[in-house]
Write a structure and sequence with these properties.
alpha/beta; Rossmann fold; Dihydrodipicolinate Reductase, domain 2; six-stranded parallel β-sheet; about 325 residues; 2 domains
């Protein structure tokens, strides 16, 4: 089996390569692709190849994409035409009704409907779905109110560099560099809108993604979803304050039991971004009854946005595809 990683020099691409090795993915060869300016660089022991008109795509079985929506729209169909299955981490195909949007622990059955492209959800949606799916299966979800606390690594390496440079300057008594990636400084600050505002919309694109993707993944268009996405000066791991209103009564004791037994979930008292960083699980804590509504509860959800929020889920999907292929070959 040959596996390609497209966007291999980015934050998520590097984690994808590390995880393929870490999890001993059954690949005979791994090919790292990136833009022309990164060609020749070494990442995880591999020499990066340029993704251009001369790129050889034949013989690749699975392609993991994390290079942005425009690259995915242009190149994913080419990989599919060459015989690969594409697992895409961008927003390019998530709204396409013919493309399954998959969280490995939640809706792996959706993989059966793919036609060559499988979409990875937004990182904030990803961790939320792992935490909510067991509750939805048990009691149904009527309404969600979510506030995110999103780390800067979700914006990319330049955002991490900006946070580091601003914090370093301030702590050393120097003038803080002017913001470039964000509209104002991110160090020692909270920016009350993560993402960008589409024309004519007072919700950010990050908020719209979470609203749409939640309903698609849980296969329930009737769920009410209210989201506020916020950027905080944390390097890695997104946090979410979540209020869940269920359709049927659900006790806190039963909710704890469901979450404690759910795949990919670690139930804690008070999870934190630092402790979640470098881990593949979704951490859930502060589980409590919402006294303002008889069928509502609140929780705090934290996960590493580069791992489970992006790279890990893509690798888990690839593992499901590889296992299915191995089973088919044996059969």
């Amino acid at each position: 089996m040959r596996v390609a990683v497209v966007g291999a020099t980015g934050n998520v691409g590097r984690v994808m390569l590390a995880l393929l090795r870490e999890r001993a993915f059954p690949a005979d060869e791994i090919v790292a692709f990136a833009s022309q300016r990164s060609a020749g660089a070494r990442v995880d022991g591999l020499t990066v190849r340029p993704l251009d008109e001369h790129a050889r795509l034949d013989g690749i079985d699975i392609a993991l994409f994390s290079a942005g929506a425009s690259t995915s729209r242009e190149w994913a169909p080419r990989f599919v035409d060459a015989g690969a299955i594409v697992i895409d981490n961008s927003s390019a195909f998530r709204r396409d009704p013919t493309v399954p949007l998959v969280v490995s622990e939640v809706n792996p059955h959706a993989l059966r409907s793919h036609s060559g492209v499988i979409a990875n959800p937004n990182c904030s949606t990803m961790q939320l779905m792992v935490a909510l799916a067991p509750l939805h299966r048990e009691a149904g979800i009527e309404r969600l109110v979510v506030s995110t606390y999103q780390s800067v690594s979700g914006t990319g390496k330049r955002a991490l560099d900006e946070l580091d440079a601003q914090a370093r300057a301030d702590l050393h008594g120097a003038q803080m560099p002017a913001p470039d990636v964000y509209p104002e400084q991110i160090a020692f600050n909270v920016i009350g809108a993560a993402g960008s505002f589409p024309e004519g919309d007072d919700h950010t694109d990050e908020e719209r993604k979470m609203m749409f993707e939640t309903r698609k993944i849980l296969e329930d268009e009737s769920i009410g979803v209210a989201v506020t996405c916020v950027r905080v000066p944390v390097r890695v791991s997104h946090s979410e304050a979540v209020n869940v209103q269920t359709r049927e009564p659900l006790s806190i004791e039963r909710a704890r039991e469901l979450l404690a037994g759910a795949p990919g979930v670690v139930l804690e008292h008070v999870p934190s971004p630092l402790r979640a960083a470098g881990r593949d699980e979704v951490f859930v804590g502060r589980l409590r009854r919402d006294d303002s509504h008889p069928r509502a509860l609140s929780m705090w959800v934290v996960s590493d946005n580069l791992r489970k929020g992006a790279a890990t889920n893509a690798i888990q999907i690839a593992e499901l595809l590889a296992a299915d292929r191995a089973g088919s070959a044996v059969a």
